[in-house]
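Following up on my earlier thread - several people asked me to post the actual chain instead of describing it. Fair enough. Here it is, all 315 residues.
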Amino acid sequence: MNNHFKSIILQKTGASSLVEKETIQKLWSGYGKIIRVALENAPLESVVVKHVQLPKNQNHPRGWHTDIGHQRKLKSYEVETTWYEDYSKHSKARLPKCFDVESYQDETLIILEDLDAAGFPLRKQSVTWKDIETCLEWLAKFHASYLGKVPKGLWDIGTYWHLDTRPQELEVLEDTTLKNAAVAIDKKLNNRTFKTFVHGDAKLANFCFSENGQVAGVDFQYVGGGCGMKDVAYFIGSCLNESDCERLESKVLDTYFTYLHKALGEKNEALETEWRALYRVAWADFHRFLKGWSPGHWKINSYSERITSEVIKNL
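Reply from S.P.:
Thanks for posting it. Predicted structure:
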């Protein structure tokens, strides 16, 4: 990290000195890293810094390094900085406080609360129903916070798999029935009465858990407009096997909408009717992306295939 950014961190936190303690994660395709920075003589012991650097050599894990991919990544980091500067403070759902966003030459620094130190040190690879319920409550609070808001400076349509941003994956999709239905699925999902902001990458790995069962969410590069079912379907697909996805579908939706009405402060039956009918459409939309991006992916299963066929028949 350059001295300019180090001085910004010291200034914003009131620390006398800092040490780069550990790299938490390298960003996708070599776009920088997320690091934990220890602070001396400051109210906080540490902060988490997302340091975005434009890569000299792009290195995508699945071979998708193209200008389209590069531009999508660039926009995603611009979106995240806008999110933290203009929108994050309005969230009813717990997420890291942002202390500053700073750009300098071809680099950007986002200084965030260290959620580990704030009481959310746990990351989970497998979940209980209670964990799922807690994350559904988080999504409901998040969606309630931005219902009816215009995503100015964010993605017009959120999620990293949105059709308009994924022409290559559609081009190589071998399932011609799904390929031909992709635009209609996208329209059905997005031309709706009730819209909010979606997290856009609400997988289990982006939730931080506390010892007493609370949860906070991270990673807002693909936040934007849309129907909340996109986040719910994607989250469930990220943490349950196919039989549980099917067995628990009604329970998942009942739980989510109970929390959504609570977060809104009143029951909105019109919203629930519209969104509940879009859960499987959202599932099919992600399935379209996945089959083009990584045809052998473990998430491509008979439940997803059945749901997608049903959605296409009902278009």
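The chain has two domains: 3-113, 129-313. That should answer part of your original question.
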